[in-house]
Amino acid sequence: MIAVDNLHKHFGGFHAVDGASLEIGTGSITGLIGPNGAGKTTLFNVIAGRLQPTSGRVTMAGEDITGLAPHQLFHKGLLRTFQIAHEFGSMTVRENLMMVPAAQSGETLWNAWFRRGAVAAEERRLRDKADEVLEFLTISHLADQRAANISGGQKKLLELGRTMMVDAKIVFLDEVGAGVNRTLLNTIGDAIIRLNQERGYTFCVIEHDMDFIARLCNPVICMAEGKVLAQGTVDEVKNDERVIEAYLGTGLKNKVVGHA
User: What range(s) does the ABC transporter domain occupy (predicted)?
Assistant: First the structure.
């Protein structure tokens, strides 16, 4: 679904992404791992239109989407979440979901004044959709809570729920497990698997929790110093000498091997 070809993103003399090439297959849950500073989030930001690439190409289902703005990619079904959730804290959890779909009829003054019936009907449909999403994610009990008052893990579920309010085709998840307790992380993992298997979502997941990656992802891609270092199954990548060296460093790697 997504093909990245020789992508570069430079910040002055620093090459955050340095000639990365990779593919994210339709219907897959692809894991993206690597040490801190490997360029993973920068790669996400370039693909998702938050940063313009220095050079290289990104295609989605064969269409060149290089450099398109986030709102343009949103309409094509490419969405991303963030390591720190971006909820609207003063609104309820349900309202956070209801506001996601674009071009709602109530957004225009004319419709708000003269087509109140149509606006009300659309709001009822959105409310029903939001309640369906909350039930799917097992957080219906939070529907009327202010989003600012729910836990970090619940906010991650809310971000996942936002992708369900539109026709998402591929979702980029940036450290969905950061700051989340194990019980909620399992709930998030269950939801990702169900969305993938039951609704055909494609995912690409940045995550440092290798147990989470092993449970969800195939294939796994490892980045280091802005480049793609290795890809394959989670076991193949974990046992790759280049990956071990990138995470541990040559000296520590040899010390670990020497004491094995």
Answer: 2-250
> Are residue 57 and residue 119 in the same domain, yes or no?
no
**Residue 33 resides in a domain:** yes
Question: Same domain for 177 and 72?
Answer: yes
Give me the domain span that covers residue 141.
89-149
How many angstroms separate the CA atoms of 137 and 194, rounded?
10
The span from the CA of 240 to the CA of 154, in Å, is 35
Whether residues 53 and 119 fall in one domain: no
Encoded tokens for 220? 């796994």
Cross-strand partners of 3: 23, 59
For residue 252, what pLDDT is reported?
A: 38
Q: How far is CA 79 from CA 105, 116, 171, 201, in A?
A: 22, 31, 5, 11
With CA atoms as reference, report the closest residue to 75 among 60, 87, 91, 62.
60
pLDDT tens digit sequence for 146-202: 999 999 889 989 999 988 888 789 999 998 888 888 898 999 999 999 999 999 999
